[in-house]
Amino acid sequence: MYRIGIVGDGYTAADLLRIISGHEEVEAVTILSTENIGKKITDVYPSLLGFSDLVCQESNIENLAGKCDAVFLALPHGLSVPMATQLMEYGIKCIDLGADFRFNDSEIYNKYYNLTHANPQLLKEAVYGIPELYREQIKAARLVANPGCFPTSAILPLVPLLAAGIIETNDIIIDSKTGVSGAGRTPSPTSHFCAVNENINAYGVGTHRHAPEIAQELSLAAGSPVDITFTPHLVPMNRGILSTIYARLRPGLKGADVRQVLNDKYGQETFIRILPEGVMPHTKWVYGSNLVHINLVVDESSRRVILLSALDNLTKGASGQAVQNMNLMLGIEESRALNSPAVFP
Length: 345
Prior knowledge:
By secondary structure, the protein is an alpha/beta fold. It has helices spanning 11-20, 41-44, 80-89, 106-113, 131-139, 149-163, 193-196, 210-222, 255-266, 315-330, and strands at residues 2-7, 26-33, 56-58, 70-73, 93-96, 127-128, 143-145, 172-178, 201-202, 228-234, 241-248, 272-274, 292-299, 304-311. It has 10 helices and 14 strands. Strands 3-2-1-4-5-7-6 form a 7-stranded parallel beta sheet, with helices on both faces. It is globular.
């Protein structure tokens, strides 16, 4: 039985505990907090009653060192770097659900997160944690950068097409809608019920921090710089992301070529479903699951490819993918504790 620690007590931490409670080879042995020290985690999240008896402890290395085989860092940006640096000195594997290790270039991190990266050398070691793309590297990793939820929804459908060279690398448009849980547990004026209910709005237009993360991974797949426009929108639902992506098909290719590339890449993957023609993804179909639903429409006369993807932002977009990464890092079967359908209705 592997021993797991969680640093942080937000929504992603709660989802980690929900998933790990059904894991046969892993036990969550400690959870660290800053705001709820001394409280039972079930006082913070009554949904975990009967599934976890952990008490929130102070956030320090002493509460993890010698007690854990792997640790999830579910922290705001800037806080994971010092903790991951120390944990790895103790031989503890780390999965960071924040943004501190997602970029290959520390200058991009510095620019978009308004922080100077405290350990840029670790960026060379960190593996970007989309298992369907980097499975073998994750298996050997000590440090995995769990991707952002929006990037996961955009990167998965686009990477195979760019790698195969069947879509243009310029003028890719990514239009994404997300539920309110993506804003985190701490309330803000923009996430209150009265602000969100009966409303939809774009935010971070032209400036969102996930845009350079998406561009980095797409450019690696294409082998050259990729030009994207990314716009997220907040919609009045609890969880889920729907991304609609527009790209240009290269001359001489057809819609069947796009579908074939996606099927070849993901046809044997446990958590990715390429839907039948004409069936468009719904966020409700992946609610609470580690699944991604993808489909496409191609207008061959204009060479416009329209890709759609749906995932749960807290599961495949965060905690589920983090557990998937942990399983690989510890040599456990990849789908352990994750192979369940969505909650519907």
